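Batch job 17 of 40 flagged for manual review because the log was empty.
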Amino acid sequence: MNKEPAIVTNMNPVADGAELEKAKPVITVEIIEYVANSVVIKTILKKSSGTVSVISVDTGEGITERTTPFDTFVQVIDGKVELVISNKIHLLKTGGSIIIPSQAPYHVKPDGRFKMILTIIKSAYE
């Protein structure tokens, strides 16, 4: 049974909390929809060792500046995004990816609709 995605106005790292059903194939870009004037987050996996989430961002929306204590792997799966990491702009298009270093300030500049996967692996050794 799929749970409806949570809608948030400014990205909250804990939005829906439910994982996808295990051992069931999905088309990742289709498990989350665009919602007008919103940022939507769907959890793929959530473990004490890290999370994998898919996020959709509607035109005109962005993600405010934040940092994370762990490296974050970003994969764009639809559209394009201007990701600013430590004041340097990175333009990523569908299929592009980048690692946001731990403790680096980052934000997303609004530049049309996009979907991305965020993967965070927590490590006690970092």
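Reviewer: the log was empty due to a logging misconfiguration, but the result itself is present. The beta strands are 6-8, 39-47, 50-57, 63-66, 72-85, 88-93, 97-100, 106-109, 114-121. Unflagging and moving on to job 18.
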